[in-house]
Amino acid sequence: MIVWKIFEKPRLKSPILVEGLPGIGNVGKVASEYFIEKLHAVKFAELYSDHYPYHVFVNEDDTVDLPRNEFYYHKAKRKGERDIIIITGDIQSMTPHGHYEIAKAMLDFSKDFGVKTIYTLGGFGVPALPKHPKVIGAVTFPELRAKYEKLGVKFESGERVGIIIGASGLLLGLGKLDDMEGLCLMGETLSRPMFTDAKAAKAVLIELSKLLKLKVDMKDLDDRSVEMDRAIAKAKEIEKSMMDKASGKDEFRYIG
Amino acid sequence: MIVWKIFEKPRLKSPILVEGLPGIGNVGKVASEYFIEKLHAVKFAELYSDHYPYHVFVNEDDTVDLPRNEFYYHKAKRKGERDIIIITGDIQSMTPHGHYEIAKAMLDFSKDFGVKTIYTLGGFGVPALPKHPKVIGAVTFPELRAKYEKLGVKFESGERVGIIIGASGLLLGLGKLDDMEGLCLMGETLSRPMFTDAKAAKAVLIELSKLLKLKVDMKDLDDRSVEMDRAIAKAKEIEKSMMDKASGKDEFRYIG
Amino acid sequence: MIVWKIFEKPRLKSPILVEGLPGIGNVGKVASEYFIEKLHAVKFAELYSDHYPYHVFVNEDDTVDLPRNEFYYHKAKRKGERDIIIITGDIQSMTPHGHYEIAKAMLDFSKDFGVKTIYTLGGFGVPALPKHPKVIGAVTFPELRAKYEKLGVKFESGERVGIIIGASGLLLGLGKLDDMEGLCLMGETLSRPMFTDAKAAKAVLIELSKLLKLKVDMKDLDDRSVEMDRAIAKAKEIEKSMMDKASGKDEFRYIG
Amino acid sequence: MIVWKIFEKPRLKSPILVEGLPGIGNVGKVASEYFIEKLHAVKFAELYSDHYPYHVFVNEDDTVDLPRNEFYYHKAKRKGERDIIIITGDIQSMTPHGHYEIAKAMLDFSKDFGVKTIYTLGGFGVPALPKHPKVIGAVTFPELRAKYEKLGVKFESGERVGIIIGASGLLLGLGKLDDMEGLCLMGETLSRPMFTDAKAAKAVLIELSKLLKLKVDMKDLDDRSVEMDRAIAKAKEIEKSMMDKASGKDEFRYIG
Question: Considering only CB atoms, which chain D residues are within 8 Å of A159?
Answer without folding.
Answer: 60
